[in-house]
Design goal:
The chain is of the alpha/beta class. The chain contains 10 helices and 8 strands.
Length: 249
């Protein structure tokens, strides 16, 4: 697949912002951090926030009417919850205002060759989400998978009706790599989008993965990325801020 030429000159701020799922998933984040993160997401008009399940109701109230979606996780971070538990998590999240679900597939089952179980697990969450008008992104956790397993995960996710395939949770040894993103993009149809998570921390990182066909990224460095875009677009020097110690997911 040949990279798509992208540049600050040819892109709009909206096209950058609407690729970002602002991530608020670390276990130690307190209420103030989550609330400030939601307000930042609204201010920069990103695609969504991805919050912990316990924060969905609060985030939905803060973001009502903003155009920023509320997402949360299912079976996070290891994927090995029973399917009925994943469905219960999804139902609760949808009931509290989530419209995007990032679910981890059954990693052990995939590695064991139990493909029908993996597909059925994804399909159970997808069917519930789609009935509610929500979308599902399937997290592979590529750090644990061979290329062949990643390809099978792509095919199973698409067969189950998933809307996105996603590289990682951010809690494994590595996140999104360009090699994995290329592999995932060519192994799903144009109907299925690709999300990069883990390691997209700068505007240049974002532009590079967009060129590979990525349409969403998980990031915590949202402000830095969009401020850098604005500064390059206008030719002005960006305001220097201290980097966050929370990595992008």
């Amino acid at each position: 697949m040949n990279p798509i030429p992208l540049s600050v000159e040819t892109l709009s701020e909206r096209s950058i912002a609407k690729t970002i799922d602002h991530s608020l998933l670390r276990p130690e984040l307190d209420d103030r951090f989550v609330e400030d993160g939601c307000l930042l997401a609204a201010d920069y008009d990103v695609a969504s926030v991805c919050v912990r399940p316990v924060d969905v109701k609060r985030a939905a109230a803060l973001l009502e009417g903003t155009g920023v979606a509320v997402g949360t996780t299912v079976g996070f971070p290891h994927g090995n919850h029973r399917t009925d538990i994943k469905v219960a998590e999804a139902r609760a999240a949808l009931g509290e205002g989530a419209t995007e679900l990032d679910m981890v597939l059954q990693i052990g089952a995939l590695k064991s060759g139990r493909d029908l179980e993996v597909q059925a697990d994804i399909e159970a969450v997808v069917d519930l989400a789609h009935l509610a008008g929500a979308i599902v992104k399937v997290i592979f956790e590529n750090a644990y998978l061979t290329d062949g397993e990643k390809v099978r995960a792509c095919h199973l996710s698409e067969a189950a009706g998933a809307d996105f395939v996603k590289t990682s949770t951010g809690f494994a040894a590595s996140g999104a790599t360009h090699e994995d993103l290329r592999l995932m993009r060519v192994n799903v149809s144009p109907r299925v989008q690709v999300k990069a998570a883990g390691g997209v921390r700068t505007l240049d990182d974002l532009l590079a993965v967009m060129a590979l066909g990525v349409t969403r990224v998980g990031a915590t460095q949202t402000k830095a990325i969009i401020d850098e875009f604005r500064s390059r677009k206008t030719g002005e020097s960006p305001v220097v801020t201290l980097p966050s110690d929370v990595e992008g997911y």
